[in-house]
C-alpha cells in the first residue's frame, strides 16, 4: 500500500516547498494536505494530492487525519500547541507505530534574551548530537520551546509508538517551490526596516559580528525528503537516541550579520532603492522598533542582533547531508528582487 502522508502548512514557504519536493520525488505517496484556503492552481498542479479543509484549531480534523496517516509532516506555525497536541493524540490513537516530523527553528538556541552577545560574536555553536541534552533543557523563554517541550515529553513517554523528528532549520533563503508563499521572511523584513526605521540605510547593531546559520530552501527540502523516506521505511536513522526525538539542525553555512547587511545593501543600491550600500550602526532602541510582532516584541533583536549558530551533525551522520545550493551571499539578489516585488 502507498504510504499515507498528512501534511500541514502546504501553502507556506517551507511547507509548500516540502510538499512540492515530496510530490515530485514520490508520486506514489498518498498525500493529504490541510488547507484553510485552496490556491487557484492547486488542484491542477497537484491533481493527486487530497485536500482537507480546516485550520490549526480544527482539532478533531487534525486528530482524525493523523490517525489515518503513516507519517505526519507538520509545518506552518512552529509555536501552535493545540494543533501539535491534536496531531499527537491522533497518531497515538493508532494501533501501529507512526512517525511525526515537526517544523521548529534554530530560534530556540538564539541568545536574543541576554544583552551579553547582542551585536557581537557568541562562540557557542550548538550540535544536534552533542548538545541534545542541553537543547532538551532550554529555558521556557527560548523560541519554539513551548512546542519542543511537548515533543521531547512525547518522545520520552511514547517513543516506542510514535517516533518524532524535530526539524530545526536556521534562517532560510532562496525561492520556495510551493503553491503559496515562495519568499522567506528575513530579507523581506530587513529591507522593510532598512527603508523605514533605519532611514534608507542597511544596518547592524554593536559590531555587527553576531552570526547565524543559514540554509537554502532546496537543501532543506532535500533533507526533509531523506527524513520522510526514513519514516516511511521505519528506519532507525529517523529517530533519536534513547528518550530523545530525532533532532535535525539543517544549516549549511553561517554569516555575520554585517556581511549579510552589506551584501543586501549593495543589491539595493544596484537596483536604485537606496543610495548608500555601507551599513550604519543602530542602537537597541531602534532595533526594538523593527520587525513588529504582536506575540514577540523583541523579534528585531532576534533577527538582527542575536547569534544562532548550529551544526547539522545528525543529518550529516545519518544521510551524508551537505549543502549543494549556491551560498547566501552569492545568491541573495534573487531574494532581494522578490522582496521588492520585481
Ligand atoms: N522562514 C524561515 O526562515 C524559518 C526558519 C525556521 C523556522 N521557521 C518557522 O517555520 C514556520 C513556518 O514558516 P514559513 O516561512 O513557512 O511561514 P509561511 O510562509 O508564512 O507559511 C505558513 C503556513 O502555515 C499555514 N498556517 C499558519 N497558521 C495557520 C492556521 N492557524 N491554520 C492553518 N494553516 C495555518 C499558512 O496557511 P495560509 O496560506 O492559509 O496562511 C501557510 O501554509 C514559522 O513558525 C517560522 O517561525 C521559519
From TrEMBL:
Q: Where is the NAD-dependent epimerase/dehydratase domain?
A: 149-232
All copies of the NAD(P)-binding domain together span 9-87
Out of the domains of life, which is the source?
Eukaryota
- Gene Ontology terms, MF aspect: aldehyde dehydrogenase (NAD+) activity
What cellular component terms from Gene Ontology apply here?
Answer: cytoplasm
Name the UniProt record assigns to this protein: Nucleoside-diphosphate-sugar epimerase
Amino acid at each position: 500500500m502507498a504510504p499515507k502522508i498528512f501534511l500541514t502548512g502546504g501553502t507556506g514557504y517551507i511547507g509548500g516547498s516540502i510538499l512540492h519536493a515530496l510530490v515530485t520525488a514520490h508520486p506514489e505517496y498518498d498525500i493529504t494536505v490541510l488547507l484553510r484556503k485552496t490556491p487557484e492552481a492547486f488542484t491542477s498542479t497537484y491533481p493527486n494530492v487530497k485536500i482537507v479543509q480546516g485550520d490549526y484549531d480544527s482539532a478533531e480534523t487534525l486528530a482524525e487525519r493523523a490517525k489515518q496517516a503513516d507519517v505526519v509532516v507538520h509545518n506552518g506555525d512552529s509555536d501552535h500547541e493545540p494543533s501539535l497536541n491534536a496531531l499527537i493524540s491522533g497518531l497515538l490513537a493508532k494501533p501501529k507505530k507512526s512517525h511525526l516530523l515537526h517544523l521548529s527553528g534554530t530560534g530556540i538556541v538564539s541568545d536574543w534574551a541576554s544583552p551579553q552577545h547582542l551585536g557581537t560574536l557568541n562562540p557557542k555553536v550548538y550540535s544536534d548530537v552533542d548538545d541534545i541534552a542541553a537543547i532538551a533543557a532550554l529555558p521556557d523563554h527560548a523560541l519554539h520551546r513551548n512546542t519542543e517541550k511537548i515533543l521531547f515529553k512525547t518522545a520520552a513517554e511514547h517513543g516506542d509508538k510514535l517516533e518524532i523528528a524535530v526539524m530545526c532549520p536556521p534562517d532560510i533563503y532562496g525561492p520556495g517551490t510551493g503553491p503559496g508563499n515562495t519568499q522567506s521572511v528575513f530579507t523581506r523584513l530587513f529591507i522593510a526596516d532598512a527603508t523605514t526605521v533605519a532611514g534608507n540605510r542597511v544596518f547592524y547593531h554593536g559590531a555587527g559580528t553576531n552570526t547565524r546559520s543559514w540554509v537554502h530552501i532546496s537543501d532543506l527540502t532535500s533533507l526533509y525528503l531523506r527524513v520522510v523516506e526514513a519514516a516511511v521505511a521505519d528506519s532507525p536513522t529517523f529517530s533519536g537516541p534513547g528518550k530523545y526525538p530525532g533532532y535535525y539542525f539543517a544549516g549549511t553555512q553561517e554569516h555575520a550579520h554585517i556581511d549579510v547587511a552589506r551584501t543586501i545593501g549593495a543589491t539595493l543600491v544596484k537596483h536604485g532603492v537606496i543610495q548608500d550600500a555601507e551599513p550604519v550602526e543602530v542602537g537597541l532602541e531602534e532595533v526594538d522598533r523593527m520587525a513588529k510582532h504582536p506575540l514577540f516584541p523583541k523579534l528585531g533583536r532576534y533577527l538582527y542582533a542575536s547569534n544562532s549558530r548550529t551544526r547539522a551533525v545528525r543529518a550529516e551522520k545519518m544521510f551524508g547531508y551537505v549543502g549543494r545550493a549556491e551560498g547566501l551571499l552569492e545568491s541573495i539578489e534573487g531574494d532581494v528582487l522578490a522582496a521588492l516585488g520585481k
